[in-house]
Amino acid sequence: MRLLRLKLQNWRGVEAREIQFAHGVTLIEGPNEIGKSTIVEAVLTLFTVMDSSSKADIKAIQPVGQDVGSAVEVEVKAGDYHFVYAKTYNKNKQTALRILSPQAAQLTGREAHERVEQMLEETVDMPLWHALLVEQGSEIAGVTLAQSDGLARALDEAAGGEMPEQDDSGLFARVQSEYEQYFTLKSGKARHAALEVEVANAQAGWEEAKQALADIETDSLHHERCLAEIVRLESQLPDLGAEEKQYEADWAAVGQVKDEITAKQRQLEDARALLSPARDEVERRNQLVQNIAQGQQANRQAREQLSPRAQTLAQLQDRAAAALAALTESKTRLSAARGVAQLTRADVQHLENVTQLDSIDKTLARFQSFNSNLERGREALQGIKINPEGLEALRTAANELEVAIAKRDTASSSIEILAEDELSLMLDEQTVSLSANGREQRDITAEVNLRIPGVVSIRVTPSQSANELDVSVDEHRATLAQLCTTYGVVDLPHAIAVEAQRAQDAQDVLAWRGQINDLLGETSPADLEAAQTELRASIAQYQATRAADPALPETLEQAQRASVTAEAVRTELEAMIEGQQSGAEALQAECAALSAQIQVGQQELAGAETLVAQRQAELERSRATADDAQLNARVEQRVARVTALLSELQELQEQLDSAAPVTAEALFMNAQAARKRAENDLATLRTDLAVVEDRLTKAQADGRFDAVEQAEHHYLALADKWSGTTARAAAVGRLWQVLNTHRNAARKVYVRPLQEGIEQLGKIVFGADFTVELGDDWRMVSRTQNGRTIAFDDLSVGAKEQLGILMRLAAARIVSKQGGVPLIIDDALGFSDPTRLKTMGAAIASAGQDCQIILLTCTPGRFTHVGRAEVVRF
Predict the structure, then answer these.
(1) Which of 242, 426, 826, 870 could form a disulfide with 22 if both were Cys (CB 3.0 to 4.6 A apart)?
(2) Helix axes 751-766, 797-815, angle to 10 degrees
């Protein structure tokens, strides 16, 4: 398979692009994110994904922010097939296939997709193509080739093997098909696990039926145990009840002591509740006296601090008023400056419009001139019928006419008449007079009648071939005349002159069209005319509305200088005002802050003096109710009450501890639980006894013996089926293993041609003493150079990458005789030094003589040394 051409449209960042691929090496260079890797993605997507796909990776190829379809078209030669294949994804989805050979056809939709799959399956080793492909960011060193049947056949041929007349791949496929009926291909997992489950289920059913039969005996034993346990519990219940009542009385005595303790604790809490307020009252009175003294001292200090702050506030207020006056004056000046700046900007815009209008007028004038010349050229071409194909047809017809005339003249006869005396004769009704010794000669291409009046009549007939040649001359002359009429010319020289004039007129048309495109660019004449109208209206309106004073500048440069000056004045005033504004605001803020501080200080002082007066009044009211000695005596009485209650509570707690309350509670609770459990167990046993008696009654007539026999027959039948299936699976598994063993053994023989191909290219890169070792699975094991052997896994990244490329080149070269596959390498040899790049370039060029190679790189110069490469630059 060879890729001839690729066309992309609206694919990720690529708006539109078309690439022609060389027969050998095609080198595609361009910076990152220009769309090189998109080429690989588009080709793979075209061959593998249907246009109806809505997967996330297909949606991702649509350009961001654009509701358009992403299209890819590829022209391919694969075996005897030559076709053009195209798909559009995401929007306006479609698939189109145009087969050019061996038999032309056109298909669309799924039919086209399936037809391409069928052609590729016939002619291309797709697993090998994917194995050789090097995508950007993928590991280049490793390559798996052992699964390629196409490469195996090519290696067998290269190794000198003789392909059998009937390929054994059909046998292998049939065995594989049979194998896949019993096992999965990849993991070898058995497919008849479901049958195994059926056997296990049948066996479980049989066991369950046997167990159901055995359950009758189990229920009988359970019935006897239930009867015995019921008798035992009925005899124990009276003793358990008496024991419960005894422990309940002991627990009640403990509860009475607990109740006395609880009552005493409430009395203690009440006494403490009375003691706490008395103590708080003494503490509150002492704190009130202390707070009055401290408040009076703080108020004196506050009054002393407020006086100097009032003087400072007056000074700040005077400064703030002066700053506001200066700011107002500056704002007045700024307003006038802004008006001047706005006028100068408008003048600049007006004069720019005048300049732009003049440019558009000149452009439209040139366009009209160019367009007139273009129309004259088109008119001249309209009356000419001749074209290069017609001229070539005329030349061919004229040449064929000359050849026919030459053939006729060569083959025709001639007649010569020599008069011995004066003679008059008739040649085809034409009188010919000859003097003595006169001569008359004629070529005979048709019948000629010669007559000497009164003497003799002679008829000369040419040969049949001469007649035919003369007819041929007439036919060619008629053909030439017909062509001259068709193309509107007199003869071939006239046609040559007319075609030359037509070519010149066509060239002139292209030249004038190019000048128009260069003149207008992306702008249309209608756009220019619209802009012209808009500018004229704007200029007229400005001239009509602008004030006469100050005068409009004469030139755009003068207006621009005036605008710059006005803007500078405005900017300077704005900067000055900003500073003045900040200064005035700072002074006002300072005044406000100081005024607030003074006001707050005065309010705090008034509040503090009020608070001191309130506390003094509160102290006097409190002492009028009870003096300090009375309060202290009340506290002492309540302390004595709390002490007495604590002593009584301690005595009760000692009495409770001696009664062991935890033990008494545990014994009572356990006795109560034992009695309840016995009652519950008795009820449960009576229920179980009834259920077992019912089950035993039903079991006598439910056919459990028959169920066991049926379950046994079902299990044995499935077991026989399972045994047969496993035997057949084992046989086909063994056959599959043997075939694979022999197939792998044959593949070992193929290693030699692949190894030789790698070493042939590797000697170009690494030197004459370069060899490699390949494993049975065709993977590279080691490299030997300068007598030193290194395992492949121990090589540097650059060396692995180079060997990976060489293996792909060798494989592509070997299969090229069978049609081959294109080798696509995206962003490789990034770890190679300049010397290796030179020798790798030579190896790639050498392989490119036999197979198609497509290189993509973002580094110009990386593949400079690929001598035979056609370069495509983005």
Answers:
(1) 870
(2) 130
